[in-house]
Amino acid sequence: RSHPTTLFDPPNTACGRDHFALTQRHVIMNFDTQTGHKAPLSQIVFEQYSEHGRMSCDQLQKLCEERGFDGDLEEDEIAAAFVRLSNESGFIEYPEFLDWWKLQDERFGQLAFRSKSEKEKVQRIKKSFFQGTGGCARMNRDEFQVKCYLGGYCLSDQELDEAFALLDKDGSGSIDFVEYLRWRQEDDR
User: Fold this and answer.
1) Mean pLDDT, the chain cut into blocks of 10 residues (189 residues total)
2) pTM (predicted TM-score)
3) CA-CA distance, 119 to 98, in Å (whole number)?
4) How far is 94 from 47, CA to CA, in rounded Å?
5) From its phi and psi, is residue 27 left (phi > 0), alpha (psi between -120 and 50) or beta?
6) DSSP secondary structure letter of residue 68
7) What is residue 69's predicted lDDT score, i.e. its pLDDT?
8) Main-chain phi, psi angles of 153, to 5 degrees
9) What DSSP letter does each residue of 143-164 carry, written as one string?
10) 105 — phi, psi (to 5°)?
11) Positive or negative, the Cα torsion across 174, 177, 182, 185?
12) What is the spatial distance between Cα 155 and Cα 159, in angstroms, rounded to a whole number?
């Protein structure tokens, strides 16, 4: 043969049926112009919008806006989708992202509220969060203590510190709405 070998046309293989079979068995690699590496498109996109192998809700929101996945989604829908997609670390890591990315045409649908009751629940939780913070975007330890007490949790200082640290997934020293939403959905009192 006179043409160079490609991923789709390995040496000693005729084009045609073998070409099709090879493309079905192998992941097509894409070239990342920022890093100069070849990788699956899902990995390139994930690395573009994540930091240190973890994607935050803000980074998911940015990805959705820039890639056109947000459509008519409300901000609360992205937060709820992030909680559904992320793992116990409080972030979306590549395996969770890949599961979502593989949905292709269904990606947008996975971001929307799954039901009217989910939407109402998220809105109630958001209202509770902002009532507890006086309208601020982050909840401090004292505000969290009041929320715990009102929710029926009478915690010692040590228990409160442990619970606060468990919810503060990003280690910022405060709890944002997504962290609060995850807690409230896990323990719905």
Assistant:
1) 38 42 50 72 93 95 86 87 91 95 89 94 95 94 93 91 93 94 78
2) 0.76
3) 25
4) 9
5) beta
6) T
7) 77
8) -100, 115
9) HHHHHHHHTT----HHHHHHHH
10) -70, -15
11) positive
12) 5
* Site of tokens 């890591």: 93
Q: How far apart are the first and last CA of the chain?
A: 70
Q: Which of 86, 45, 34 is CA-nearest to residue 69?
A: 45
Phi and psi at residue 120, to the nearest 5°: -65, -40
pLDDT of residue 50: 96
pLDDT at residue number 28: 61
| CB atoms closer than 10 angstroms to residue 180 | 23
Length of the chain: 189
CA 143 and chain centroid, separation: 26
Rounded to the nearest 5 percent, the helix, strand and coil shares of the chain are 55, 10, 35
List the structure tokens of 35.
């890093």
- Cα 21 to chain centroid, rounded: 34
Contacts (Cβ under 8 Å, ≥6 apart) of 186 = none
Compute the distance between CA of residue 30 and CA of residue 125 in angstroms, rounded to an integer: 41
Bridge partners of 175, per DSSP, are 139
Both tokens of residue 96?
């969770």
